[in-house]
Design goal:
Blueprint (H helix, E strand, L loop, with lengths): L3 E5 L2 H4 L9 H5 L2 H4 L1 H8 L4 E4 L7 H13 L3 H5 L1 E7 L5 E4 L3 H10 L4 H4 L4 H4 L12 E5 L2 E2 L9 H12 L3 H21 L3 E6 L9 H10 L29 H18 L7
Parallel strand pairs: 1-2, 1-3, 3-7
Antiparallel strand pairs: 4-5, 5-6
Helix pairs in contact: 4-13, 5-11
């Protein structure tokens, strides 16, 4: 029976920066063979690895794409699947950009009349959705702007919508959104009988109230404990940019070894209720 490793996350799992000049991935086009998940696959003897991570991906995207992938698989495949989720920054999000047809349907369903249109945000009312035709309809957004592989990413419309989002954003909102996302995905995978592990390479958890930290480590299959926090892991970084904390080729191997050691200690098996 085929043993499958499924991973999801942001640039840390996708391999952000590995395409920079001087890296093995850039020289030999081995990007997918040197990220940490490829090492885990090889060292833990998985038959195949599915990596759905994307740079700047939000936790919302991680949940959505993991949910969709699992629901598309046969039960026999899921019985032999292990999921490792690398959670992203909690202040990222994504939004769906509707087609012209979907936009028209929305207006009909909610009866957007001329009298009501004056109360609609003009940036939404006048949106040129044709910019996104035939392209990925999920836009990725973070506090630095919109990072998405869609046409005219840096248009004033898209940028202003992102700015509007963060005018009212708070750390508390991000914290609870992440908790709800972890809870949803953990429950979903549990009900599918899938073995899963979570990790989070960010010191944000340390700033959370102690009761929230305790809840996370006591209720979710985190690949860390009091003696081995992820943000203490030592790894080689991409050179040439002092602000780039992404792991380089060797750094991905080092992260893989941390993850494998943590799994050996954790051995969290989720069973069907």
């Amino acid at each position: 029976m085929t043993e499958t490793l499924f991973v999801n996350g942001c640039s840390w799992t996708y391999g952000g920066g590995l395409d920079k000049p001087g890296s093995i991935a850039h020289i030999d086009n081995l990007h997918n063979n040197i990220v940490w998940s490829a090492h885990v696959k090889k060292l833990m003897n998985f038959d195949t690895c599915v990596n759905l991570a994307e740079g700047c991906g939000s936790n919302q995207r991680i949940c959505r794409t993991t949910f969709d992938w699992v629901n598309q698989q046969d039960e026999e495949i899921l019985k032999n699947t292990t999921v490792i989720i690398q959670w992203s920054h909690e202040d990222r999000y994504e939004y769906y950009v509707p087609t012209e047809e979907e936009k028209s349907d929305f207006q009909k369903r909610y009866q957007v009349t001329p009298a009501l249109e004056k109360d609609i945000n003009p940036k939404i009312k006048n949106a040129n959705y044709s910019l996104f035709k035939n392209l990925d309809r999920w836009a990725k957004v973070n506090p630095h702007g919109v990072v998405s592989y869609i046409e005219d990413t840096h248009s004033s419309l898209v940028q202003e919508n992102a700015i509007d989002r963060y005018r009212t954003y708070t750390d508390q909102e991000g914290m609870y959104s992440w908790l709800f996302q972890m809870g949803f995905l953990y429950d979903f995978l549990s009900r599918k009988g899938i073995t899963c592990y979570f990790w989070y390479f960010n010191q944000y958890v340390k700033a959370m109230p102690q009761e929230i930290q305790d809840y996370i480590y006591n209720n979710f299959p985190m690949l860390e404990d009091d003696d081995n926090r992820c943000h203490h892991w030592q790894y080689d970084r991409i050179g040439g940019d002092p602000f780039d904390s992404h792991p380089n080729d060797m750094g991905h191997l080092q992260l893989a070894n941390y993850i494998i050691d943590a799994i050996a200690k954790k051995k969290t098996i989720l069973r069907r209720p």
